[in-house]
Amino acid sequence: MSLKTRLAAAAAAAAIAGLLAAGLGASHRNVLPSDQLAALPASPGPALQVGKAVGLPAGRYLSRWTVVRRPTLAHAAPAASSAVVARLAASTPEGTRNLLPVLRVVSSDTAALWVKVRLPVLPSGSVGWVPRRALGPYETVNTRLVVDRGDLQATLYRLGKIVFAAPVGVGTDAWPTPAGEFSVRSKLTRYASPFYGPLAFGTTARSDVLTDWPGGGFVGIHGTNEPQLLPGRISHGCVRLRNRDLLRLAALMPIGTPMTIR
């Protein structure tokens, strides 16, 4: 071994000995005294915190709704082998989300979740079971709209208390506004015709008479350019309000609000 090599080896050995003497070659448990380790900040928590499962809210005045996430079939029972009672699209004829009132949720024998919903089909009051995976998240509302065809009045309740009331126009005897349990499923603001007023609400109610109308004869709630006709039986089935009343209602009534027509 040459003198130069021996000198390099000696220098390396001396460096290693210095590190060992300083404690840097010891196990990590002895790198710092225990009191100094205790003073170190805690490790940061994970970026994603998964909380505990929370039950869906329930209450006397709460109603639940969801939307169709992808086209699906509604069945007569919570089983894929049961009869098909309706075909559900992901959007309405107006291009909005297809909203469905939620009535019940159950688990089938195959552990799949099924949701009982009120269907926007004829005859009025039809219900069906839809696979949970085809639906969006649940939403809740604490409002309810009641349209009384006898008194010609619309009344909005929140938590069971009246927050809005106004006279309305409803369908004539030849084109009656259908009775039953429905939902307000969309808020439409793109109508240019003064006939509809400043905006319109789409609902899940369908006319029993005008079934050949574009979109299937769905009943809307909208304004009017003839307020002097209200209250009255003047429409083809839609519910008409004076424009100022419609704007008041729009500020109070969220999408998903259940609607009773009696």
End-to-end CA span? 108 Å
- Strands, count: 17
Order of helices and strands: HHEEEEEEEEEEEEEEEEHE
Report strand order across the widest sheet.
10-9-8-17-12-13-14-16
CATH hierarchy class name of the largest domain = Mainly Beta
Q: What is the assigned CATH homologous superfamily of the largest domain?
A: L,D-transpeptidase catalytic domain-like
Indicate the CATH architecture of the largest domain.
Beta Barrel
- Main structural class: mainly beta
Proportion in helices? 10-25%
Tell me the layout of helices and strands.
Elements: H1 3-21, H2 34-38, E1 63-67, E2 72-75, E3 84-88, E4 99-107, E5 113-118, E6 127-131, E7 139-141, E8 143-148, E9 153-158, E10 161-167, E11 169-171, E12 180-188, E13 200-206, E14 218-222, E15 232-235, E16 239-240, H3 243-252, E17 258-261
Summarize the structure.
With 262 residues, the chain is mainly β.
